[in-house]
Amino acid sequence: MEAVLNITGGPVSGTIRAHGAKNSVLPILAATLLGKGVSIISNCPDLTDVHATLKILCHLGCKAEYDGGIVTVDSSSVTRSDIPESLMREMRSSVIFLGAILARTGQAEMSHPGGCELGTRPIDLHLSALQSLGAETFEVSGIIKCKAKRLYGNEIILSFPSVGATENIMLAACAADGVTIIKNAAREPEIEDLQSFLTAMGAKIDGAGTSTIRVSGSKEKLRGAAHRILPDRIETATYLCAAAMAGGKIRIEDVVPEHNAAVLSALSEAGCSITAESGAIELARYKPLRPMHPIRTMPYPGFPTDAQSPVMAVCTRAEGTTVFTENIFESRFRHVGELARMGADIRVEGRVAIVSGVGKLSGTRVKCTDLRGGAALMVAAMGAEGVTSITDLRHIDRGYERPEEVLTQLGVKAERIEI
Ligand code: EPZ
User: Fold this and answer.
1) Is the pTM of this model over 0.90?
2) DSSP H helical ranges for 133-232
3) Could you tell me if the CB of 236 is within 6 A of ligand 1?
């Protein structure tokens, strides 16, 4: 059933709570394959990507269920080592299962995740890293096959601090003989969350959050564990942008403010007053929006690429020009056309977008082009005159739990209408 999200712009006021991080749940659910037993993962957001991941676990032979934010996985028996194309198509980030399935069963097979709205999304770093651990990898007519009777620890230097490749190596290395050192590892908070879950499972791993991660693998299986997912820093950034755009004041609880340092600094430059204490962030904006210094997306702790489009939406109403450079993905400006339909003035030249603030945005019918592009449309709607109707909500539902309820808690007229 198709649905449309109608949002009427206007000032915000209220308190919300961040949900668990999508980009932490996915690798942690894959990690449950490394242990034989029951894992209880709490603070899991109710997202289509999470449910797609549970379908993959069940396909592989696990018992996995979602009940009110708590996921229970029993990975005592794994009977398959393949992910069918239908499930890969549903969620391309299932490539994160490669290392875990290989570690558990000695082989893995999945259709090539292919590209997505953000670009070609190669997985060469994943495959070459798994080869360094002793795996043989083949690509035959769109199917990727990996085999490894044994995995052996090794030193791996990533040419780019890829989040997914770092996670795949951490998972495979847990079952390797000997020590694996990952250099130029991704430093995102979700990597630290994965490390704390793996440690709870009995793995010997340290260094997550720095560029060098060390894993002492062992053949004996890890055990199931309990874990609470860390707060979603990108969801938090999105709703802070919504408030910055709308004006007014909001408080977001159950967050880790330092995970949003780059975004908080950009929003305070735009004229927001922000206070951050342990576990909560308050943002108020009553003055006109100002432009920001050039925004360049970088690996963590630099400015997060996932926050680029929501922050860009804020800049469309600033009194001046802000320049964005997207350094992580090759085409992450697909939301620009839809923002232009609302009256935004944005010029794109390759990886650079020049945003000239306009006096007003007008609500109209727009469609999501991708997950964070959809987030940008929600933010823009908060500062637009009239009603904005957002379609193709499947993109938003991948990464935001019932946004219409969150916006309503902030005093905004937001409703999802099934059509
Ligand atoms: C993760 O994607 C996140 N997804 C992305 O969030 C996020 O944007 C990205 O990290 C960067 O922070 C999940 O965690 C599920 P990468 P991932 O490997 O792991 C290139 C969202 O909106 N690359 O760090 O795929 C790649 O093409 C999503 O929640 C290779 O060249 O990101 C890209 O240009 C979108 N070869 C860059 O590295 C490889 O083998 C960053 O990719 C792998 C990646």
Assistant:
1) yes
2) 163-173, 189-200
3) no
